[in-house]
Each structure stands twice: as structure tokens, then as C-alpha cells.
Amino acid sequence: MSEAPAICTRGVTRDFKAGQQTITVLHGIDLDIRAGELTYLVGESGSGKTTMISIMCGILWPTEGEVKVFGTDIYELSDTELVEFRLNNIGFIFQQYNLIPAIDAASNAAVPLIAQGMDRHEARERAVEMMAKLNIADQADKLPNQLSGGQQQRVAIARALVHEPRLVVCDEPTAALDASSGRRVMDLLREVAVAEDRACIIVTHDNRVFDLADRILVLEDGKIIHDGTEMPEEH
Amino acid sequence: MLTGDAQKFYGLVFGIAFSTLLITQQLTIFVNLLERGASGVYNVSSADVWVMDPVSRTTDVSYALPSTALDKVRGVPGVEWAVPHIRAQASVRTKSGDLEGVAVIGVDDATLIGLPKNMVEGSSDVLSQPDSVIIDDVGMTRMFPGQSPIGERLELNDQRAVIRGIADATPSFTSTVVLYTKYSQALNYVPGTRNRLSFVLVGAEDPSQAKALSEKIERETGLKAQTRDEFARDGVDFIIENTGIPLNFGITVALGFIVGVAIVGLTFSLFIRDNIKQFGALKAIGVTNGKIRKMVAAQAALVGFVGYGLGVLGTLAFIWSFSANPTFKGFYIPWQIPIISLVAVTLILALTGWLALRNVLKTEPAAVFR
Lengths: 235, 370
Known about the structure:
Chain A is of the alpha/beta class.
């Protein structure tokens, strides 16, 4: 495992306005996510893990603090540069997959490549290759609504990895899957998303897959209360 | 994205098609009805200039000239020929006893200038026979539905008239039955007043100089002279100025636009709302607002293209299916109308698309994790 931090946050604070009130969701978080590790971000609902992951992947501005992703201070970038940075360096896997219903699985998986400007035909071919690694190449021509939940999740994984990002961010990737499918997805992510120069961070509260993590961070009331290889006993 | 949601896709296509149909069809009827105001002029294709009393406004709103006007006009240099033309209202009693208001048009005895160019049945020569009249084809369907009028006798202002031919004429704005006869015969049919000459029809030696000739006639005779196009335009303007038709059709066209905006806007908003997570996901992945705009514009263009095509086809089908109906005789779609509809559809899509897109562009990518 590499010791170089893939993500480095220093003093990250995030406030939200709720009417006259200001609610602080994250309290000055200092955190290093190392490349080559499968890192879980765990916490109760409202603990701030969605806010934290959104800030780490450059889609939500922190109120204070600094976030470096592979050495780039992402919130120092202009809007356009940040969008481009995300496109080239980050892969996303969403809880509800968010596949585009009108286009087939391969085209869905090819979205990041097409957004990067690659020729559609070539992008599709690359997407099918990635789908083959995930054992769903035979589903390439099907629309999302013709696929099972597990298959849709694999298409979403293919979309997250097709452009070979250095950071993969997953939001509850096993929430809609049964235990065995969930473990298979985690094994897959470890296999394709974790490498010497890559990091994978997963937001989850699925205790069925906690044993597959290299590192578990527990967030509570906007603070990291645990950082280890296993879940603390009280959780 | 949009094509994957059949319900919304067809909803949008329907909205656009309905708007296009309403706008195109109503504008087509409006324009064709307006042109009926000039039908009296269009039916006399050989006249380059129409000469009339200065107070006359259209073929149907005219003040009689003294018969000497004909000789005055003939004396103007540049006039190749000038013939008398009479247009008057009369009542006709049919064989079955029905009373019908008709327009009597008296054409030049010698040349028959003033008759429509084509005949549906019979020949223009029949006017040489005693008491002959030629009925227009649309009038025929009104007075003699489902039967041939040839040989039918009419009581025209207490005078005997026999229908011996059917003319192929553009109906008037009011679709009044028109009976054509010789000028000399028309004088018998029309109640006697001192002046009965309605117009003098003029052929120019050089038809391309009709405008100059009309000005010369005005200068030299003190009468009003208008080229064929000017007089046709006056007929159209008369309807615009004196009827509520432009307002009524304008309201319908505006309703077509508003209905289009309502249906398309609502469906577009629902589509965006239902897919906001997908748009958020695309933004998170790194798809720029510009690319999302292009994506939505491409989908709107597809919907617009299909809907517009169906709307125009619907109008064509309407015109075609009613072409046999005398009310719609000669109706056509002027090329400008589909362009106006296209502009309206583009505006509808641009407006509704912009309103719907605002939500997408404002959506924070982080919303996708919530």
C-alpha cells in the first residue's frame, strides 16, 4: 500500500443556513486518504458523511479549510477547471445508480469518455471492454430498465471506472443489493478501483461488508471519532 | 433521455403538433378568406387596370359611373382596350320558389372580357343565346345541390334567365351566387338607374407599365384607376378594416401559441423534475452546463421537428380533405405560413426549454448524493 495521500483535508468546516440559524455540519476535519486503500466512511444519518464526501470530490464548497486531491487544491481551481478535474480524475457511483434511462448500458458506461470528447463509437467500445471486466458485456445493448438492480450497479461501476480515474467515490453502493451481491460488488471495486496510484472511498452503513475495508472512518456530529481497520465495538 | 420516457415524449410531440396545427390551419384559413376579398379581381385575369368612380373601394363596394367614362378611358394613350363591366346585386327566384340573393356580373358583349378564364361546363359562347347566364361553380352547389343547373330557368329581378354554363371561379368572401351575363343583358336584369357602369376594365399596351398607365388615366379622366394588384389589395384591406376576422383569427392563433407553451412547458418541467438526479449525476461526473444545454436543445429540436412535421401534415390533410367543399375551394398554404409556425414552435421550445433548464443549471451536483 502506498503512503502518499490521495486526498488531504485540513480544517474542513461546512455550515448550512436553515432560516436564521447556521448549522455546522463538519467541524474542522483533518484527514488523509491514502492511495491503494479501500476506505469506508461510516456514520449515522446526519453525521455529515454525505457532506464530507461531496467536499472531497469537488462538488460542494467547504465553508473553511483546504482540500487537496492528488496534490491539487481543488477549491483553488476555477469552476471550469474543477469540472474538468472531476471529469478526468474522479469516478462516481451513486446509491440510485442514476443511469440515463433512454440510452443502453454501454452508452451509459461511456458517458465520461463522451464528455471528455472521445468519439462515440470508440467510447462505446471502451465501455464494453470495461463491462466485460465486470462480467456484464452481454448486457451492453439493454436499456437500464431491462437490467436487474445488480446489473445496473455494475453498469454504474463501469461508468465510474471507464475513464480510469484516480479516485472513485461511492455512495452506499450496496444499499439496494442482497448480502452476496453486495460482497461481490465490494470485491469488484477492490479489484478494479484500488491500485497503487488510486484510491476508493465508500460511504456506507452496511455492516455486512465492513470486514472488506482496509480502513474505516467513523463520522459523528461532523467529527471523525474513529480511524482504524475495523469498526469500533460500540457500533 | 426524453425519448426514453414515451409518455412525456408523446406529450411534447402532441403539444407541438397541436400548436402547429392550430397556428398553421387558422392562419391558412385566415389568409385564404382574406384573399376572397380580392376574388372579383382575380377572376378577371386579363384586366391590367380597373377604372372606377373615386369613391369606389372594392369590386363589391362601388359607385356607378356614367357610360361616357368608357370613351374617356379609351381615349387615354397607352390603353390597348377598355371594356365595360357591371356588378350588381339582384334577387333570383328558383323553379322551386326559393329566393336567393345573387351577384350579377355583366361582361363585355363582344370580347366577353370579365368572365372567369375557365369553364367547368359549357362554353362562354353560350352567352350569345337569349337570356343566357353562366353560374359560378360554388354558387351552383348552393342553389342546385346535387343536380346539374344547365337549362334551369330563373326569375331574375322579374326577368327570365336560363343557366347555360358553369364557370370555374374563385368564390367571393361571402360565397354569394354569381351569375355572369353579357353587359347589355345585365342592364336588363339590374334595376334601372341613370348610371349603371360599375367599372371600366383596361388592357395596357405594355402590361409592365400598368402602374404608370393607371396614374395617367387618373390624371386625364379624373376617375380612380388601380392596377390589378392594387385593387386586389384594396379588397383584402377592406375585409381587414371592416370585419372582426383578423381579431378572431388572431385570438385563435394566440391561443394556439399559449396552449403550446402550457402543454410543452408543463411536460418539459415534469421531464426535468423526473430526471433531475440524472442531470445532477452528469454534472457531478463532469458534464458542463454547456453540454447539458446542447443535450436538452437537441432533444427539444427532435421533439419540435416531429411535432412541427405532424402539425403541418395535419394542416395539409385538413386542406386536402376539405378541398371538395365549396367553402374551401382553392385554399392553399402560402409558403410564409409554415415559416411563421416554425418560428412560433421555435419560440415555444426556446421559452419552455429555457424555463425548464434553469432548474438543471441551478442544481448543485452535490444534490445527487442527498
